[in-house]
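Before relying on records like the one below, remember that each one covers exactly one chain. Contacts with other chains, cofactors or solvent are not represented anywhere in the record.
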Amino acid sequence: MKKKQLKAIQFTRKTAFNIIILLMLLYFIFHSIYGSRGVIAYFKLQAELESAHNKLSTLRVERLEIENRAKLLRPGSLDKDMLDEKARNILGIVLPSEQVFKKETLNNNEK
């Protein structure tokens, strides 16, 4: 009788050990997929990185455009057409023989 009870106890210990190992395995698999450093988080970070690279390239293009326009306004390399355009925009000077068409922007309140 004692032998059967001993086998039943060993069987339950073995089963309990297997259940604990299975739960630990499931825990680590779950966190490797859904955790803060899991597979899904990796793909989200890759998407954010790609959008950041796209934004960076857009900002670089804008910066180069601004640098070129500023370069044209420097005294050493003054572009007469650029100076004329800026003076007409800021001062509102127009020759009598010219026609000016300006695009007006509406405020959010006036829409």
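The radius of gyration is 36 Å.
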